[in-house]
Amino acid sequence: LEYFGEAFTKKGMNISNDVDLGTLKMEEITELQEIVIESKKPLIQRKVDRLVFNVENTVSAHGGDVIDVLKITPGLKVQNDQISMIGKNGVSVMIDDRLIQLSGNELINFLKALKSDDIKDIEVITTPPARYEAEGNGGIINIKLKKNKVDGWSNTVRTIYKQATYPSFSIGNNLMYKKNKLNILFDIGYRKDQDIYTNNILYNFPLNYLQQSVFEKSNTNGVAGTINIGYKVNEKLQLGLQYSGFSTDANKENSNINNIINYQNQNVNNTLLSDGITNEKYNSNSLNFNAIKSISNSDNKIMFDVDYFNLNTNRFNNLNSHDFKSEFTTVDNNNLRKIENVSSKIDFDILNKWANLSFGAKISFTETNNDIDISRYNIINKKPKSVYNQLDYFTYNENIQAIYFSANRKFGTKLEGKIGLRTEFTQSKGYSETENKTNTNKYVEYFPSVYLSYLHDGENTFTLSYGRRVNRPSYSNLNPARWYLTLTSYEEGNPFLQPSFTSNFELSHSYRNFLTTTVSFSKTKNGFGQLTIHDAKYNMQAFVRRNYYNYNLFLLSEYINYNVFPWWTASAEGSVYYTETNTYTKYLEPKYSGWGGYFSTTNNFIFNENKTILGQLTYEYNFPTLFNENKIEEYSSLGIGLKLLLNRKKLQIAINANNILGTDRIKTSNTTQGVYQTFKQYYDTQYIRLSLSYKFGNKDISGDKRRTSNEEEKSRTK
């Protein structure tokens, strides 16, 4: 006789009639110890208003930082410390629906301090809904972190060593605790980076050309920390308090050689040698209080946030130069800047039979103060003679009030729609103390968003979306301070810059989360950026900020993800786009248009049955591209990675090599005022990185992070 396939008694007998076997006893010899159900999310998921990239099973999700993961995220490009979507600029970055109030190098440094192991998935939102700030022409990148699972505690110690031209390292500790209603996260990290930057520049003036060779070595020390406390008062009320801050001290040694060469005889008319030291100090503090209150039932919620944020910067630069004629020039740049923001927002989520409704409001108050002291003077007969001075105190105040409404509804099992409208009221005022000039600006703008998703047959999904966005100038772009990069070039902001506006249209098709095709069109009006203005008489270049163009982008992209073998998963992305720029400045041609393209592939490997030896191979290639007036030549990058999971996966060792072939070097050219110029830049991207982390305690818990209300303002503090 058998029970569930197991024989529990055996006896030979002949049966011709019914036989009573009596009571049969079964020994409990089978014990079910454990059931393990393993499921793996698809690498790509398409939702009604975003694309979700699940990164938990990729090698780049271990032993690195957030930047490493963004580099392999579909639709994104990370190049020369700039994050963008394919063919677009002005992207915003969020963590758990909380916009990071930093940009430029400050944003990159912040993201490098975050562990990639804590990432659950990344949402690429090309057309953000009304709930999010309208800031960012290029859309939003939302980084979702792993959430709490069970009570317990966990501590992770990490260290990273990177060898590029010079060595760099970082150390950190992450402590998480969850018990009943209390949840605490504490993270602190220190890094010491050494990087180089080179740029070979050529300016073709009418009578001669200028060759400029720039070399910069930076030494950066930085500390970053986060404290997050969450408390669940009861089933209907949750409270949270979060503090995050960082302090960075960077010293840069720079030198450059300028050769002025005559066209006719190719003789060097003059050589200008320059060297200098730049010191940059950044200190930032961010404080958030939040509350979530359930109403009626657990599905209806009120969310409330109050935020305070500040950023203090102190930049000082001293440049010295001399030429063959023994003429000496000295420049002292000094700029103190302070940014403060106070904001608050309230959101309502209401679910009913007709639709899921969301509505809310936000207020924001920002004040920036810039203390400017710039002086340039020549040394003649050992006596200084002033050439240029800028002494000013510039303040900029900006207030924004916003309200929004959105509704989401499913029509049957196949069709889903979402509509929204966000209205923002903006008042700004800039004041220059020296010039005694005030610039005020007031405007009201509307930002509609529409989404429609259709599930055709369980395997094919079609999504159509439209949205309008705004890109406000960063606070540094509004700062009129002149900053000398070399003795023959400087950059300066423009307090009269106006925001640009972009309309995005997108149609996408997804087949079984295996193949995704996207066609999109975006139209930007009143775009702003950097222009080069030449003074041929003195061989000077000024990099200024202006509103000077309207921009159209047509984009076709294809993404595929497939399992080549059970141990080999591959993904590839290709994009082709056409850009058209119409300018309204005397320094450029009236129209620029051209094609561009991008290709990347990521391959993940499992080398053993226990899945404790993993590998990764990545490659990207950028085709020649035209962006506004700039022609960008092709460049590429090849990377490999290996990860070991030891001691029951508590110890993780990862080694990664980036830009192995050294082909990640960008050459850009354009013509301004009839002067043809080229730039060949290198950002020290060829390196080997070794990372180790050890985790003890309850390995299944992870802390929460919170979205705050002063989201947009942080994104503009570059």
Question: Which key phrases capture this entry?
Answer:
mainly beta; Maltoporin, Chain A; 22-stranded antiparallel barrel; six-stranded mixed beta sheet; 4 helices; 38 strands; cell outer membrane; Beta-barrel_TonB_sf; membrane
Give an account of the 3D structure.
The protein is mostly beta strands. The chain has one domain (about 45-715): TonB-dependent receptor, beta-barrel domain (Maltoporin, Chain A, Beta Barrel), CATH 2.40.170. The protein is about 5% helix and about 65% strand. It is built from four helices and 38 strands. It has a 22-stranded antiparallel beta barrel. The chain starts with a strand and ends with a helix. About 40% of the residues are buried. Residues about 30-35 have low confidence and may be disordered.
